[in-house]
Amino acid sequence: MSKLLDNVTAELQRLPGIGRRTALRLAMHILKMESDTVDSLAAAIAHFRHDIRYCRSCNNLSDSDICPICSDTRRDRSTICVVEQVGDLLSIENTSQYHGLYHVLGGVISPMQGIGPSDLKIDLLCDKLLTGDIKEVIIAISTSVEGETTLFYLLNRLKAFPEVKVSTIARGIGFGDELEYVDELTITHALINRRELKP
């Protein structure tokens, strides 16, 4: 096989869910694309990787310091939905059932992967609660063991804010499911049927 083809296939395989056969198919597809299109694709990826920012308020991806959700004055600023990753935020937004703010933790507590509470944006969440403007925190994280560990840790931290209602999305989502891959109808029902948690 060509060394150039081998190199691009190896690089594509670094992407999650892409095995050698899929990477080879993608490489061959790229080869058939117009040169300008390939250049645009490469430039868009490089621009995205180097210029993307994280919202200083919620840790969502943004083109500037504040994301469009946080700057939208029509959103309910008394409610924050806490999610693991940006993909989870997008899944909830696609349901059009939630109109509050978000907070992206950036992962879950996972000692096996060396991720502890200090690696997540939990202090940033607590700083927001100190303003006194937040009335409810909805925790919408995966029901995996790591997700449950993170939930338990968050509940302990949120005890410092007894005036804030803490709820979690209804557990209609199967144990071990990743929120990013759950269909929109299931997420809608989970949000509507959320229950209050007592820290």
Description:
The chain has 199 residues and is an alpha/beta fold. It has two domains: 3-51, RecR Domain 1 (Helicase, Ruva Protein, domain 3, Orthogonal Bundle); 72-197, 3-Layer(aba) Sandwich (Dna Topoisomerase Vi A Subunit, Chain: A, domain 2). It has helices at 3-12, 20-32, 35-51, 68-71, 86-93, 122-129, 145-158, 184-192, and strands at residues 53-54, 61-62, 76-83, 100-104, 136-139, 165-168, 195-197. The strands form two sheets. It has a five-stranded mixed β-sheet with strand order 4-3-5-6-7. α1 (3-12) packs across α2 (20-32). The mean pLDDT is 90.
Q: Overall pLDDT, averaged? A: 90
- Helix and strand element order: HHHEEHEHEHEHEHE
- CA-CA gap between termini: 59 Å
Helix coverage percent of residues?
40-55%
Count of DSSP E strands? Answer: 7
Describe the biggest sheet?
A: 5 strands, mixed
Beta-strand proportion? 5-15%
In angstroms, what is the radius of gyration? 20 Å
Structural class: alpha/beta
Structural domains: how many? 2
User: Which fold name is given in CATH as the topology of the largest domain?
Assistant: Dna Topoisomerase Vi A Subunit, Chain: A, domain 2
Shape: elongated
Question: Which regions have little confidence, pLDDT < 50, spanning 5+ residues?
Answer: none
- Which CATH class of the largest domain? Alpha Beta
Count of individual helical segments: 8
Q: Tell me which CATH architecture of the largest domain applies here.
A: 3-Layer(aba) Sandwich
**Strand numbers in spatial order across the main sheet:** 4-3-5-6-7
